[in-house]
From TrEMBL:
Keywords, alphabetical: Cell membrane, Ion transport, Membrane, Sodium, Sodium transport, Transmembrane, Transmembrane helix, Transport
Protein name as catalogued: Sodium/proton antiporter (CPA1 family)
Annotated ranges, domain Cyclic nucleotide-binding: 707-821
Principal location: membrane
Topology within the bilayer: Multi-pass membrane protein
Species of origin: Allosediminivita pacifica
Amino acid sequence: MDIILVTTVVASLFLVIGVAEPFAARLRLPYSVILAVFGTLIGAGATFLLRTELTDALNPVAEAIVELPIRSNVFLYVFLPTLLFQATLGMNLRRMLDDWVPILVLAVVAVVVATLSVGYALAWVSPLPLVACLLIGAIVSTTDPSAVVSIFRSISAPRRLARIIEGESLLNDAAAIALFGLFMGFVMLGIPDPELSEALVRFPVLIAGGALTGWVAARIAVWMMTLVSRHELAQVSISVALPYLAYIVAERGVGASGVIAVVSAGLTLNLTAPSRLPPQSWAKLREIWEVLAHWAGALIFILAALLIPKLLSETRLADFLLVGVVILAAVVARAVIVFGLMPVLTLLRLSPSVERPFRVAILWGGLRGAVTLALALAVTESVRVPDDIQRLVGILATGFTLFTLLVQGTTLRWVIKRLGLDRLSPIDLALSRQVVAVALQTVREDVKRTTENYELNHEIVRSEAKRFGERLDSVVSEAEDAKILDRDRIALGLIALAGHERETILERVRERTISARMAERVISDADRLIEGARSQGRNGYQRAARRSVAYNRAFRAAVQLHSRFGQSRPLARLTADRFELLLSKRLILRDMGAFIDGRIRRIHGRRVAELLHELLSRRVEAIETALQGLRLQYPGYAEELERRFIRRTALRMEEREYVAMREDGLIGAEVHTALMQELATRRAAMEERAHLDVAVQRTAFLRQFSLFADLDDGALRRLGRSLKTRYVDAGETILRKDSTARSVFLIASGAVELESAGQSWRLGRGEMFGQMAILMERARRANVRAIAPTTLLILDEERFRRLLKRSAALRSAVRASAEKRGIDPSELIPDKERVA
């Protein structure tokens, strides 16, 4: 085929893509639906021109369209990796983890159920062998989120709903294509009824092999990117190579799922690259991938649509019945998952609740698209697949795809409106009126000053002022009529406060005051604050705030590794991350008070502003307590981090001065470039965080305890190695009354409260508890709980007794503690033999 003609056709398709988006917006239809319609019309028109005798002038163009080298491998090896990889880069994975159960249910369980449902339904009503029916079931199980998400983003639909559907589609494609490869192999081998157990055994192998391949490839790619950290285009080039190489290696080299490899590579890059690459490099990389994915998604849709007339060319009347069976089986299978399994998991407290309107939107939003057509095309191209199977696969997959696009896609916006998902809640509506009233008051003042400065015509100014005043009076009246309960005002104020916190974080990241390593974490915490306040008001906000400073499971696992196996590197890394996280949060929260006074007070009033100040003060206090505990435990490291923060702030200010001088013409482009390169070198060197040596820091920390003042350095080092660390959150119970005494606890940071016989007393840093029960050889007589995030050092009974024998300072502290609690010291240590 003439390369010039092919190039002309492809360039023309890009024109169609450019026209389709504004056309879809004008018709208020999903973009993918318009692309499918345009592609089908172009394909049908080209076929008609070749068959008609009306004219032969356009035959070369029609032939070029019909004979475009469109093969399934183009979709699977060129376009599909691009779409999947960009989807993983654009996701907020930490926010999706909050809904990982419903996402996995929709993406994996629903795929298997739909495959089996469609497969067995077709096997019952058609002459196809079971394996071919299951193959069709796998093909039609892939969902396309682009149409659904585009509708959600164009209206005020909940963002959580969009996240669930995006997450489902990403993993859904991977699972469905893995099943497709499995059943396609059986069809090509001529196995009509495969053992289901054999398929289920091979399926996890495909998944695991692909996941491991993608993870390894992404780790290598990140390592290569860090070597060229100053060259953004080089990093983008490496990222472009990553999904294709991962796909090919998994498919051809490992014999695993290439789609899973691409998803795994994208997820790994999303989680690791932000902390290893400069923020501007990561932002540019994602922007370029968004453009690539837009083109790939549009081309795969329109090229697949060009094939629809060809795939439907041999349709028979009986095939419409089979298409109806596929539609019914697929919808029923999805409904069983959405309205059957998901509520059960919520009742069992295995999954967060998904509201009923959300579930209806998820059911009707299960659109199919270009991936389904591409998989069907792969079947019709294979010479090892019988002709009758090829024909039915093409017709059923295409018919089902057209149904979801032309019926579900065109009615989805109407369904969302009927569910009320496009409307603001009464609280948000009332808030919007108040916000408009406050904004217009500010605008009126600014416009008045502007008109005075420019000395405009007084009559025109007076006329416009009157018109503006009428609008303002109307808005103020509506705002006053909108009654908002104090509880709702507090929730709205907290949502606004958390939203401003998120914007401040993004600004600090752009300024590089907050490192790229911490950016994703602090932004995710801010998102949780917003959703907590939106769903549960003050309680949800406070719960999210406590969670943001709590010790997570990864931290506790690192503690266990250090305590039991002596592996300190994970603990050192997570402790350093916690240091930096708390410092970043403290920096951000310092700016929130001015926002409350300057903006929230004007909208919600003095009482709400005062309450928000109180909640903010509690957050600051919790962060300061946690930070102080780490400072006390690792004093040298805390100093290094604070020095690093000051230096980074100085670099940011220095950069700002150079930019200002360049804009004012004080320095030329050459000098500015040289100064910025030097600045980048110093900044790159500063990104390396100081190493935290847990063992060395613990020895230095123990020297500060008066309890061990008479121990030499060797004894302190041995003691430091023998101590185990335990981290507890505020409110967590440490010891229970009547439990067996086997350990003594030293408070490294934080505070605890002891309760016994109706009395309570508190202990802080440098004090110990648990020793009385050991020395009196009794069960514990008090309940002990943490009243702040607390770090404890645990000493076993045997070592404590040995240490007590040789340390006069420790014996003195034990006696003083006994006297404080009204216990005769002689009952604890009657003589040296008892101590021994």
